Amino acid sequence: MEFQELKAFVARHDNFEIRVIGHAGSRFYQVELEDIEGQRYMLTRQGKPVLFRALDDVYLELKRAGIHRAYLVQQVPHDEVVGRETHYQDPLTSRMPLVF
C-alpha cells in the first residue's frame, strides 16, 4: 500500500490496526495495516517495502497519514526457524501500544 493509498484508507475507514514491525537483530522497522476483514498491507514506496531506521521516522510518517495509534510488534527469529506463525494478539504482551 503506497503512502497516498494509506492516507485515503485512513480517511474513509475507522476500524483497522496499524503495526510497526521490528525484527530481532535488525534496527529497521516496517509498517503494516490490517483491515477489518483481516487483509494485511505493507507500507510501500514505488512498489517496494518501506524500511524505517528509527521509531521517530515511523511516527512522523504515520502522523502525516492522520494516524496517532499503532502497535509495536517484535518478531522473533525462533518462530520463523521452526515454521510457526506469529500471533500478534496472543498473548497481548507480544505487542506494545504506541500513541504519538
Could you explain how this protein is built, in words?
By secondary structure, this protein is an alpha+beta fold. It has one domain (3-78). It contains 3 helices and 7 strands. The strands form 2 sheets. The chain has a 5-stranded mixed β-sheet with strand order 3-2-1-6-7, with no helix packed on it. The mean pLDDT is 86.
Arithmetic mean pLDDT: 86
Q: List low-confidence stretches.
A: none
- The radius of gyration over CA amounts to 13 Å
Counting H and I runs of at least 4 residues, what is the number of helices?
3
Could you give the distance between the termini? 22 Å
What share of residues is helical?
Answer: 25-40%
Number of domains: 1
Structural class: alpha+beta
Quaternary organisation of the protein chains: single chain
Number of strands: 7
Q: What characterizes the major β-sheet?
A: 5 strands, mixed
Q: Choose one word for the global shape.
A: globular
List descriptors.
100 residues; alpha+beta; five-stranded mixed β-sheet; two-stranded antiparallel sheet; 3 helices; 25% helix; 34% strand; globular
Summarize the structure.
By secondary structure, this protein is α+β, with helices and mostly antiparallel strands. It has one domain (3-78).
Task: Please specify the SSE layout and strand pairing.
Elements: H1 3-12, E1 16-23, E2 29-35, E3 40-42, E4 44-45, E5 48-49, H2 55-64, E6 69-75, H3 77-81, E7 95-99
